[in-house]
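Design a sequence for this backbone.
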């Protein structure tokens, strides 16, 4: 994929929003913009948001967290050449919503149903625009089972399977990023809290995304 001069949209959570960076210019999308020579980036990152709709807990203590991915996926600027979706860590971390029944799931208050919806609605809303997903990266204690009995890797595995079934390219940051906050050295070097990457962590994400996109 030729990236120079392209406009790219990023739908995500607090990592895409830039929590953990010292300045927005160190977010992975802005780092990618400079490296690839993009003409523009649209950042649709909102901290605390999930793919799924918290039907049993609305409104939440922070109403911003209720702006789930499904409700925002078709509201991005249509003047874009590529859409990148990066989320799922809050679905695991909040652990409030059912995981769902995988490919047959259509309920938006389940993780699987919400992922299915986002993967379907974006191509419909932005016909002809390439779509790429990025899995959650590893996080501190991410293999502890959450309130619905799932590990972070379960959320990653489903996203990969759902994307593969639809022919959507997926960058597996969980297995291929090379950052594991359960390792003290990675925790300190690349994150601010074991979840949110710092400037150095965002630079690694940008590099991985760049190398992935140019192969498409």
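Sequence:
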């Amino acid at each position: 994929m030729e990236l120079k001069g392209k406009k790219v949209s990023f739908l995500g959570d607090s990592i895409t929003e830039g929590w953990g960076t010292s300045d927005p210019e160190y977010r992975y999308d802005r780092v990618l913009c400079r490296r690839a020579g993009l003409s523009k980036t649209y950042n649709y990152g909102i901290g605390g948001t999930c793919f799924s709709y918290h039907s049993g807990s609305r409104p939440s203590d922070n109403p911003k967290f209720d702006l789930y991915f499904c409700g925002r996926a078709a509201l991005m600027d249509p003047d874009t050449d590529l859409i990148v979706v990066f989320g799922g860590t809050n679905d695991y971390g909040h652990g409030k919503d059912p995981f769902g029944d995988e490919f047959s799931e259509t309920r938006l208050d389940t993780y699987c149903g919400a992922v299915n919806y986002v993967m379907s609605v974006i191509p419909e809303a932005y016909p002809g625009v390439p779509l790429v997903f990025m899995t959650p990266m590893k996080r501190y204690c991410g293999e502890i089972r959450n309130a619905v009995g799932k590990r972070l890797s379960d959320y990653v595995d489903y996203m990969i399977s759902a994307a593969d079934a639809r022919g959507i390219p997926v960058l597996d940051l969980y297995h291929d990023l090379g950052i594991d906050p359960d390792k003290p050295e990675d925790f300190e070097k690349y994150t601010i809290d074991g979840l949110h990457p710092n400037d150095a962590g965002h630079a690694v994400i940008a590099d991985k995304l760049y190398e992935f996109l140019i192969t498409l």
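The two ends are 5 Å apart (CA to CA).
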